[in-house]
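Entry:
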Amino acid sequence: MKLHQNGVYLVNGKLTDTAPAGITKEKAAEGTIAYGILKAHNTAPDMNDLRLKFDSMTSHDITYVGIIQTARASGMEKFPLPYVLTNCHNSLCAVGGTINEDDHQFALSAAHKYGGIYVPPCMAVIHSYNREMMAGCGKMILGSDSHTRYGALGTMAVGEGGGELAKQLVGRTYDMARPGVVAVYLTGKLNPGVGPHDVALALVGATYENGYVKNKVMEFVGPGVASLSADCRNAIDCMTTETTCWSSIWQTDAVTEEYLAIRGRADDYRQLSPADVAYYDGCIELDLSTVECMIALPMHPSYAYPIRALKEDPYTILKQAEDRANEQLSGKVHMDLVGKIGKDGQIHVDQGIVAGCSGGTYESLCAVADILRGKSCGNGQFKFSAYPDSMPTYLELVKNGAVADIVSAGGIFRESFCGPCFGAGDTPANGEFSIRHTTRNFPNREGSKPGEGQISGVALMDARSIAATAAAGGVLTAASEVVHDDFVAPPYHFDKGVYDKRVYNGWGHAEPDHELRFGPNIKDWPEQPALSDDLLLRIVSHITDPVTTTDELIPSGETSSFRSNPLRLAEFTLSRKDPAYVGRAKAVKADDDARRAGSLPAGIAAVYDALKAAGCAVDEANTNIGSAIFANKPGDGSAREQAASCQRVLGGAANFALEYATKRYRSNCINWGMLPFLTTDPEALPLDGYVFLPGVRKALLDKDDTIPGYAVLPSGEVKAITLRLGALTDAERQILADGCLINYYKHN
């Protein structure tokens, strides 16, 4: 794999470093597939300052309630574009009695009232339904799940926080500077046994840490694309999220056309390819024939190694991964990976899972069945489960015998469910090692609770190698060791009747008089204050990890059941990273409540005394007091807005960071009225320190490049600091000034 250090030109399908005579870089940049799609969806005259409207949207059952509640509070009367509400996250996570199904019934009633599309529980995982029924060449889809990626079907799809979807629901636009575009130039053909997750993990490993494609579009081109099936492309594409790119797009061809035609949507196909001359801001050259069967060790998809290399030197590589994981776990619990090396020198795993939008595809499960046919997973500690990505896929796997092959080998065949990707299904036992064809292997994404002494290790692998390992009774095995011929899945027959009989499609047929159905756990968003002229912040968590994931900011798994109840969910904020956070944040909120009631707490008065002694003028009665966290690089992972909203409802007013891991998390902070500060001086922001920002509202609205402030250290020392907010649109500045997106719409 080669990562070009500079931009490249694609001229008649060939890479070159120089432009043809008479062609400027700026003009050639208009030749990418991405540029054409963005232009077609941009409502502004300036292509450098995008104001996008999408063709459709999609959410699942841990995000749609909050989005619809936000849009209702902002004046929405009906869905102005097709909005798919799937039920694939909380369909089996039954914490809290009736509350999951209450959310589902809320969504069905909302689909009737506002004209939405309701996909019942266990019918399809969110991204598979959208691939099958909504994606089309040249379209754009916005989803409230980070793996909203349909580029392999010619659709630029974006995963964002709920606030961005709420904007579309009230007729506003998605605003951003035009992103850069990086070519992924594919050549060659995959070898037998190598699957899409192997390609994906190789790409993530090469691009995540160096930020090569961060907030850019990955555009897949080159002769190697034609060698990949549609399922293979889709499975690679959904994992582009883990590179931290903004979106993805692929050149389309007869393979794309056939995929759409089989699903009764031939009219959604058109050929997409770069112009004769196209300029890319970077390029990843990848010869598919060089990709090996891969494994991403705990606890990130970028910790990728060839399985061959791991098996050649298991102790060194596992010890390195174990040490890295335990450092990340901060001593709360100990992960033992070296102990998985048996007396025979082989690596023994305890569980295999193939599931979700990346693993549960028709072709991957057919390959699993082919490898397991006539074999046995054994009756020891190892266990294997498979989850299809949709009921149409399930039905075809039943008809062609794949389900029988998997079950006959001792595997368990499940329903369409995203749980194994976020910790709500097949949680391993403490100390176990699980291999999964799912999207992430972050800490506790498999459902363990490190704060309570539980831990299990998760490695990501392709379905084919997981099946090979299952056939070996849990001894780690690359599929290339047992598969020597190209596998071709049986022809796929899509039965749309499965959806016609169960999915409610109310698009274009809103029923305004239909009553919304509320369960007792579904609560409105609490009111949030506007930004005051001056602001006092207390640092209630100081996190020094290199990266802080959204799962650490607000855990997934069993907490998902409470996502329709903002205050109850907020009790889990940072619970696995900093259990004292909630108590500290509540104490700051109590200080602000006392200030509003006319009584200044003694601790706050002491801070103001220190500021006055340093020559700062303060207006105690009219200065909001809020909590804040510092983290080096927060926000990697999920798009769900609760990673920010939970801080906000507890009184959070800002975050401080060296950088933000993803655009979507920073957008969530902005939409919830939390100032996304950038700092170069984390030592000025210790736990229990304060930051005073005089004139912050004016500086924000005046578009000042820097914002001066004062750090009040726990010792009482006052230190001048300078902060930045980074690039903000005019609307984002006003959202922050108004206190949150809901307030912004009330005022505008």
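The chain is about 30% helix and 20% strand.
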